[in-house]
UniProtKB/TrEMBL annotation:
This is NAD(P)H-quinone oxidoreductase subunit 4L, chloroplastic. Coiled coil: none annotated. It comes from Lindsaea linearis. HAMAP family: NDH1_NuoK (MF_01456). InterPro entries: NADH_UbQ_OxRdtase_chain4L/K (IPR001133), NUOK/Mnh_C1-like (IPR039428).
Length: 100
């Protein structure tokens, strides 16, 4: 009954992990991280519906995850913009800002 939702969530999780490992662009890595967050949210909502609506943690917790993801996206994109201005590139493998 909930097989399709769980398969979609597993697919989103795999694409997000694969994309975050392979991507060299910082913005693409942030998008893959958002895909991972969406897979987790889909799992919470699917299991909440699977086990009944007596408890609402499965529907409230994704709201907090979305809020954290929005803050992460805003902070990450602001950092990417600053790095783009200073280094003229957003490639992850070319960044050595933390080295002395």
């Amino acid at each position: 009954m909930f097989k399709h939702e769980l398969l979609l969530s597993a697919f989103l999780l795999c694409v997000g992990f694969f994309g975050s490992i392979i991507s060299q662009n910082m913005v693409r890595a942030l998008m893959c991280l958002e895909s991972i967050f969406n897979a987790v949210n889909l799992n919470f909502i699917t299991f909440s519906n699977l086990f009944g609506n007596q408890r609402t943690e499965g529907e409230i917790l994704p709201l907090f995850i979305i809020a954290v993801a929005a803050a992460e996206a805003a902070t990450g994109l602001a950092l990417a913009l600053v790095i783009r201005r200073n280094r003229r590139s957003t490639r992850i493998d070319q960044l050595n800002l933390l080295k002395w």
